[in-house]
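Lay summary

Proteins are chains of building blocks that fold into shapes. Our project writes down both the chain and a compact code for its shape. Here are two examples, one after the other.
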Amino acid sequence: MAVNAMTNQAVQEALNLQVANWSVLYTKLHHYHWYVKGHHFYTLHEKFEQLYTAAAKYMDDTAERLLAIHGKPVSTMKEQLAMATIQEASGGGSESAEQMVKELADDLSAIALQLADGIEAASEAHDDPTADLFTSIRSDIEKHNWMLHAYLG
């Protein structure tokens, strides 16, 4: 079946939202990685590194998929910040470890919902590769989110 141009636009928008959010989250995770303190430092320092490594992959995978379907990924911080629904870290490194984990859990929950919308848009456009990509990312981040929530108790 041919991809409907209007539906393809929705898929491109969903992909670009992921590029923007993962770009912002990548930087936020580095901030948390550098500024985490306390008795869970080693555990969280390592977890934040694991997450920013995953964020870089998700950002790259979604941008490359967007290019493959003739879209244009947002590629500047200005564009990414304007499009992203994820907020930057507050800065200054004053967040507690628990605040960092809570904010990341909230961010991952929001992204999981957006991925569900993207899966639906890709399915309507008969774009199985994009739906599969979104499903894979959603599965990964739901596992990470479960772990963050377990940390919070």
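And here is the second example, written the same way.
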Amino acid sequence: MEFLLDPNVWIAFGMLTALEIVLGVDNIIFISVLVGRLPVQFRNRARQLGLGFAMVTRLLLLFSLSWVMGLKADLFQVFGQGISGRDLVLLLGGLFLLYKASHEIFVEVEAREEDAPPQTDGEAIKAGGSKLFWSIIAQIAIIDIVFSLDSVITAVGMVDQIWVMVAAVVTSVGVMLFAARPIGEFVDKHPSVKVLALAFLVMVGMALTAEAFEVHMPKGYIYAAMAFSLAVEALNIRARSKRQKLAAIKAE
């Protein structure tokens, strides 16, 4: 138990946990956007399953480190550019994210009710919600693999002890599980924030696709752009709230 008294271990654990939480932001946003399309009674369960898949995927990849690191070896070349297993996963994940985020933006802006289950019959709502539930869980599971791969490779570069990586992953997913519901409810309550979140996912999809071709786009730039956009939108939300209160007072 002496290793528990080693300050270097705790520093590594804290840094890796914080990094895993930051890297999980795009995962939370993706889950929150998709879960928002479900009937209310399905949403919390979908969040829990989605983040549960994220944790299981990360742990499985951690326990198969030799295979994960082997994904960096080139499988073939395209126009002189080596393509590895990791590149293929990032490319397919990036393209999927681009497609999904673009489709969700269309549904949100142009056809908000297009994919909604019928609202006239309780059984129809339940059946439609159940079918949509498993479709969304499958999509979350697919994108979890992409986000987990990047997360695990980063963890391997920071820490040597696998148990520290496992503890950091479990802790970070626990934090994300706690934060996912309020974030999801906030995104669902404010359609303009939802569109911003989808635009953020488009940027992440572009970054993953570029990364597959060895074009590195630091996520810090993407997070900074998104933080600025959210700050502006927060001011807009506050201004709208004030206008609504003034309108209510005048109406009385």
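What can we say about the second shape? The chain is about 80% helix and 5% strand.
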